[in-house]
């Protein structure tokens, strides 16, 4: 009875989280297409350079406490309020640092306009601090329906502002306005829809308790962001903002699709796994289900995206973005691995082993740094391929601890994902050949997408794949209980 209640709660939470993610990503997809057609690669490159420092700041503001609040069993108002005030203080301190070092950053990249852009965009840190605590409360209580309205409402308004300002010739500032407005509106809407309010409570003891778990995640996130951003720093410094814009554009579509599929599942999985951390058999079953289900959906999505990469770019973004196609293909392969990464890491976090999480990040980043140094002499495309290689190696690193923690070894994990991977590659090869009929880009893409869906689902049903049967049965159960 308890298992059915948990499953029902997880499914309802997953439904709203997927609605929220799908709505946001859908609107953002349209907004980004319009903006990409109106703006130049240089505009996106300048934003990418500034975003490196905003993302680094957000690591200190948002990471650690957010996950610690979700993972802790007996979280109360003192925990939430203490984390809230400390996050705001951290945001204020970091904003002052970024404000005063912005001229140095602009000089380093030889782009004077970065000073004002960074100072304005860094205001996001304050709203990010508030959102991180609100998000932890929502996840803890599994109130993802609230997140749906705030996120979708914010992206609709901010996206419209971005398009209007880009069309009016504001250039890179259209992107600044769009991002800042989105963060501000999300905070405001959540403030009126979520009941939680910070109280005049602060406990050093509670902060230390949360920090004893969260600092390892914070350091791990910092290492992860630095390892990723060093590529952007190198491309922006030694090549050009335009090349950085093309590099990031190639990453955008795969990242958007995988975040839309894998992100909601993992957001719901952490509180669900944390609630069952005393029962490792159940945690293993939930992790295994997460990996197999996500892989079943993500693998064909990424293979299909790689197949249609070139004509899709020409149709949606125009030919000025064609240099991003090789990056799009490489990142499609890289992001296909995300379900394996995130499910294993969420299990480790849910079991309270942030110490292991930190050790994994250090090991992976050492490997990533070695691969990056080896790829540097061969150019930007080699840097992207090196990132893919690091990702493949990292799947083994992330899976290693769960061999002991959950008795879920490499052999079992690859056995779970291999049917979806092999079927996706076979179907991808089949639909790739449709282009030989020379029917025009748009018609070819439509036929390829339609054919992939029919072939993939038809063969999954024919071979009686476990993931297919699970998704169908779960869908029927969910609709029956609605």
UniProtKB/TrEMBL annotation:
<feature type="transmembrane region" description="Helical">
    <location>
        <begin position="366"/>
        <end position="397"/>
    </location>
</feature>
<dbReference type="Pfam" id="PF13440">
    <property type="entry name" value="Polysacc_synt_3"/>
</dbReference>
<keyword id="KW-0472">Membrane</keyword>
<feature type="transmembrane region" description="Helical">
    <location>
        <begin position="44"/>
        <end position="61"/>
    </location>
</feature>
<keyword id="KW-0812">Transmembrane</keyword>
<feature type="transmembrane region" description="Helical">
    <location>
        <begin position="21"/>
        <end position="38"/>
    </location>
</feature>
<feature type="transmembrane region" description="Helical">
    <location>
        <begin position="173"/>
        <end position="194"/>
    </location>
</feature>
<keyword id="KW-1003">Cell membrane</keyword>
<feature type="transmembrane region" description="Helical">
    <location>
        <begin position="442"/>
        <end position="463"/>
    </location>
</feature>
<dbReference type="InterPro" id="IPR050833">
    <property type="entry name" value="Poly_Biosynth_Transport"/>
</dbReference>
<feature type="transmembrane region" description="Helical">
    <location>
        <begin position="417"/>
        <end position="435"/>
    </location>
</feature>
<comment type="similarity">
    <text>Belongs to the polysaccharide synthase family.</text>
</comment>
<dbReference type="GO" id="GO:0005886">
    <property type="term" value="C:plasma membrane"/>
</dbReference>
<feature type="transmembrane region" description="Helical">
    <location>
        <begin position="147"/>
        <end position="167"/>
    </location>
</feature>
<feature type="transmembrane region" description="Helical">
    <location>
        <begin position="290"/>
        <end position="309"/>
    </location>
</feature>
<protein>
    <submittedName>
        <fullName>Polysaccharide biosynthesis protein</fullName>
    </submittedName>
</protein>
<keyword id="KW-1133">Transmembrane helix</keyword>
<feature type="transmembrane region" description="Helical">
    <location>
        <begin position="321"/>
        <end position="345"/>
    </location>
</feature>
<feature type="transmembrane region" description="Helical">
    <location>
        <begin position="117"/>
        <end position="138"/>
    </location>
</feature>
<feature type="transmembrane region" description="Helical">
    <location>
        <begin position="82"/>
        <end position="105"/>
    </location>
</feature>
